């Protein structure tokens, strides 16, 4: 594989992974670990399986069709692409408000400045990435660097928390309880909404597409889930170590109390770094991907897509500054994004079997079956969540 292609594939993987690892990711993992304890390992295992199945299907179909998801959807059914774009952009904007909030919180912990000022400064940094000529390459490097930083610091905190690893492994395969809301939320927070399309659209924009690229695209899609999952597992173990000791978590900021309990004041500062890095990389990923769903609808939008991206970040920042973002909403948005997944994946699976979209490409039957099972399972769990689960977040 050429070095350039390898760089693009790794960049796409980290863009997707760091888009998933945001403030909501940290909050969801902490809240559900506190509730389910070691049994949350089962939720993580199931979500990883679903994530891989969904992402492999979507990235391959985008690559072989050489089109972005909204254009594929419009080819499946005229107007469907606009509907999918509306869902993704709305979800991306909601998530990005939470991402900006997380960036503000991270700077507050690190520097002691007002979270709103920290959010504004972080927004300006994210905007700066899209003002340079080589924005795509800079975005790749930025997300890779901060991705490594987040994982390394979380591993350190995990070791200081001394989690009951044996119990975690046992409950991963024999849980005390199965929580549909947790599964839908984790999948939604990892491959729901705009997130799974982040890397796929990045590959299209970088020119890495077509049947010849499929082996590398598939590896990159799994690698992306691997990066996000490693972060999820280490954070889960860190929280479990704290919870197992009977230490209370702060309802207003659960992840921060985990880092502080595990490693004292140093841990609290580490949380600031992790929260800021998770937030600002997610701001970049959400803005880039959400705007990528609009670019192909008009030559004007394509021409000025950078300004659209800058506007997206600006709007997200202003909404946070004037409205704010509570913990419960970060969890809720992950659940809603999980409901978008069966629609998006279902559309991609139909497209995979239309020759006018994929030409003579033959999508593997096992992938279609795997994807269809995920569509049905996520739709079912999503409905159950809507009926029974979400109101519990606000009770």
UniProtKB/TrEMBL annotation:
InterPro entries: NRAMP_fam. It holds the Pfam family Nramp. This is Divalent metal cation transporter. It comes from Halobacillus amylolyticus. It comes from the Bacteria. The keyword Membrane applies. The chain crosses the membrane at residues 36-59, 80-103, 109-130, 142-160, 180-200, 221-247, 267-294, 306-323, 329-352, 364-387. The keyword Transmembrane helix applies. Its main location: membrane. Keywords: Membrane, Transmembrane, Transmembrane helix. It is a multi-pass membrane protein. It is found in: Membrane.
